[in-house]
Amino acid sequence: MKAWHGKVVIVTGASAGLGRSIAATFAAAGAKVVLAARRREPLDEAAHALETRGHDVLAVPVDVTNDADVRTLVEQSCEHFGRIDVLVNNVGRSARGALLDTTPEDFDDLLELNLLSAVRCTRAAAATLIEHQGSIVNIASLAAKSAARYLGAYPASKFALAAYTQQLRLELAPQGVHVMLVCSGPIARDDGERRYQEQLQGLPAGAAKPGAGVKAKAVAPDELARRIVRACERRQPEIVVPGKARLLFALSQLWPALGDKLLLRMTGS
Q1: Which residues, at least 6 apart from 157, have a Cβ–Cβ distance to it below 8 Å?
Q2: Quick check: is 196 catalytic?
Q3: Catalytic residue among 150, 154, 164, 196
Q4: Which residues pair with 238 in a beta bridge?
Q5: Residue ranges of domains in the chain, CATH in brackets
Q6: If 0-12 CB within 10 Å is exposed, 13-18 middle and 19+ buried, where does residue 117 land?
Q7: Which residue in 31, 90, 153, 224 could disulfide with 19, CB within 3.0 to 4.6 Å?
Q8: What angle separates helix 67-81 from helix 117-131, to the nearest 10 degrees?
Q9: Paired residues of 61 in beta bridges
Q10: What would the pLDDT profile of 107-128 be if each residue is shown by its tens digit?
């Protein structure tokens, strides 16, 4: 894709999963890619895999909950490549838990990672993104639009990210910046039902499943990454996967009681 030749893309959480797929897809399209993640070993491994394919890559260890780390990420990206054209705020974590058992500290923890990391990275990179009329991509979830049971503080953190994304879109569009929200069902991964074992005490068995039992096919990270790159080219405001979930979102806004009934049917017990 000629659109990405010479462009520079930062992807947070790029050492594994969807973040790694997004970085690889942008690189394959011709972009120079900055891989950012907290753990050095898997980060270097992901960067090496791209370098062996001839891609131009920079790996920067970063804790996105730390202001100084984030400033360093942006500074090193600009020093190395001279610009930033796309920022993908991919870092995030889900959770499990009944809502009344979820503490304020649990909310603080997920809001810091799922919302404030995006705020921090966006503010740090804003000047160069505005200068180059670039893109900000915030990776959310179907839970950013409709809150299912047993996900603890996760939906609240992703709803907040969705609101932040919309505000960015409205405020930055006049300056030529493209802002996109990505709302996807559960991403396919090997440890899908084993990730939250210590959080599942007292919850129904379905809560262990991806999306706490949402009846949606797991999304392949490589396919979602390709959709994200295409959507950035077209400067779309939003991606929802699967697309039919939009109907549930609309019904929930118009008729909350009906939306709740449908959501209960679509999630495990």
Answers
A1: 92, 107, 110, 111, 113, 114, 115
A2: no
A3: 154
A4: 181
A5: 2-266 (3.40.50.720)
A6: buried
A7: 90
A8: 30
A9: 37
A10: 999 999 999 999 999 999 999 9
Tokens of 211: 């999306």
3-state DSSP assignment of residue 138: strand
* Chain center to CA of 132: 22
> Is the C-alpha dihedral spanning 236, 220, 145, 255 positive or negative?
positive
Residue length of the chain: 269
**Planar angle of CA 243, 244, 247, nearest 5 degrees:** 120
pLDDT per position as a tens digit, 27-55 = 999 999 999 999 999 999 999 999 999 99
Q: Does residue 155 have a cis peptide bond before it, meaning omega lies within 30 degrees of 0?
A: no
CA triple 161-5-235, angle to 5 deg: 35
* Token digits of residue 163: 């609101």
Give 197's DSSP letter: G
Alpha carbon distance 213, 18 (integer Å): 20
Per the DSSP assignment, residues forming a β-bridge with 178 are 135
Q: Does residue 269 surpass a pLDDT of 60?
A: no
* pTM for the full predicted model: 0.93
Burial string for 186-202 (b: 16+ CB within 10 Å, else e) reads bbbeeeeeebbeebbee
pLDDT above 90: percentage of residues in the chain: 84
CA angle 46, 49, 43 (to 5 degrees): 15
Under 8 Å between Cβ of 114 and 139: no
C-alpha span between 69 and 122 (Å, rounded): 13
| Complete DSSP assignment for 239-258 | EEESTTHHHHHHHHHH-HHH
